[in-house]
Amino acid sequence: MVSSLLRRLPKVSTRGLLHAEQRLAERYADLVRLAYLVLPPALGRHRRVLLAHALVQRTLPAAASGVPAPRAARDDAPPMSRSLYVPVLREVLALSRRPPLWPGRVPPPGMLLPRLPVVWGLRLLPRAGGADELALGRALSELSATARAAFILLRVERLTEAETRGVLEAAGFGGVEAELRAALDLDAVLDSGAAGVLASEEFDPCTVRARPSDLLRRRRRVHLAGIAVLVALITVVTLVVSDGVPTVRAGAHRASRPAPAVDDVVRVAPGAWAATSRVDFTAWPARGRFVRDRALLRRALTAWAGDGHATRISRSAGTAAGPPLDAPHLLYAGPVGGGTVVLLYDGQRLARYREAAASGARSLVLARVDDADVTTAAAVALDTSGERVRYLLAPWVAASWTRDLMRPDTPARALAVDGDGLTAPVPVFNPGPRPGAGAGCGSRTVLQLRSSSRIAEHHAFLLAGLGELTAVHLTYTPLPGQGAPARQPREATGPAALLAWARTGCAVGLPHGPGVKAVNVWDFAEQDLPDGAGPGVWTCARADTWRGPGEVAVALRTAGAGTGEQARVVARARATGACGRFGQHVVVHANWRSPKGAWYVLAAGSRAVRGLIVTGDVTAGTDGATLAVRAAARARTAVRARLAGGLRPIDLSPGRSG
């Protein structure tokens, strides 16, 4: 392919042609990786693989024209890397800016017709990576296409900031300062191993595995396509015969995809969860009294396929619509409360189909769960009636309790579970007043579960139900130790974790119903407050969603106060990587009134901060990670932080967070 494209170039000597071909062959994999990482994640991995190869191959002639011949290497020659990056990025970034039309984006001019590579009947996917690759992929998905390109050029290709700006501008995009800053912010919070993670097979579109598409569905599509062609021919003939009088009416009903057959439903053996390293919904067995009720299962599958016209369908944020992606797993089918429930899983989503006993009303709820694990796949809400909810627990849950999150000193209470894993009714998690609506949270009942010792010894964890199918995993990260490595999130079951959640949980206000997967409370700094107010703890609560983006709330609490006193929220930010794996360096400042009535500006940074400077209405500095300076009640200030190695923390101060 490289050779055939290069020979289309005019006036290229044989020696120059061979040199250009050799250089492009050496960098082909890097260019395809660059295109793959910058393409919109919404395209899906299969489309991104094919499109990345197609975009690079169509730009090879333009790239080759800029590769200097061996004798042309001189000081004023353009860098070879720039001549290769620019045409590729021009195509990729232009593609990302076009409006949506297909499930992905409008292809570049000339790509509406099939171009190599073309793959029929197979799905090409890079090899799956681990937690590091997943977390970095999510961080990149939160950036724009231009910012992703800037990040790859900076981190992987090791270009300078000026060189990166030049490449992006040469690709036809001016005013890239905001995207460049976003890339630099992400680059600042990553460790040195990020480049190695990006070089792994998770992000390598040249090392792929082939899997067949849905063979049964593909066969049906072929039949439907044949019928559609026949209908189109009949329509054309009719229009010609009628001299074009009638016009085909738009908005005709589009037939939904056929529902999977009941016999295709997957039923996992009861003990499979103890013999696999993938402890998630794929290991759930089929439970419930009606797992062999073919008529019930057929109605549930039909509703999921979109043929249940009388079924009310809803889905959580970030969850794709449409029929099952593959033959679904049956997790439960049986009576729950005042109706019958069927719970299905297709490898990406949960589907809860419910038929009300009294009214006969049917409903279907879809929820994204493509990255579930031993904790986030431990409980599913099957029925909510009034102020009570009943959960279906995972087969690996050995013991279950409930506890009030607002009362850390009150022991957990045992929760009854039947033989199918269905719990007794549990009080609904009360979100309490919204931030700023006054004190008092009332009761906040959460599940405290313990995994079987066959998975992990003494592994207990907390889950909170926020009104969706899956419960939210609650974790805690303690204050950094002196000279110790950075602390990692841990289960929020210890005394310090329970106290932090009791003092912070109501103040930050857990997001209600936006597809939240987990919430971590991180105590990132502690300082002695002025005027004898005692120690204060700065906390960042981060809520991560199933689709990737997260939101944070920063709070300040007085460590010596009683458990009933809530922390004070000083800052909030949405769609940010702060306070997560790829946002471990943060700084914040706020105005604070002491018990004696005096006003101060307080500032604090995470463990890597080596100095703080406050400017504005007051000016002060320190070599530590916390600062307090006397100021007016409404003093307008800004804070700058100094980190080792020249890194820049994320400023979460009001008006600066993002």
Describe the structure.
This protein is an alpha+beta fold and 658 residues long. It is built from twelve helices and 27 strands. The strands form six sheets. Strands 10, 11, 13, 14, 15, 16, 17, 18, 19 and 20 form a ten-stranded mixed beta sheet that branches. A five-stranded mixed beta sheet has the order 3-7-6-5-4, with helices on one face. It has a four-stranded mixed beta sheet with strand order 25-22-21-27, with no helix packed on it. It is flat, with a radius of gyration of 29 Å.
Strand content: 25-35%
Helix percentage range: 25-40%
Secondary structure tally, helices: 12
Low-confidence segments, given as residue ranges, are: 1-12, 67-80, 99-114, 237-256, 433-439
Broad structural category: alpha+beta
User: Average pLDDT across residues?
Assistant: 79
The biggest beta sheet, please?
10 strands, mixed
Count all strands and give the number.
27
Question: How many angstroms does the end-to-end distance come to?
Answer: 44 Å
Q: Rough shape?
A: flat
User: What is the rounded Rg?
Assistant: 29 Å
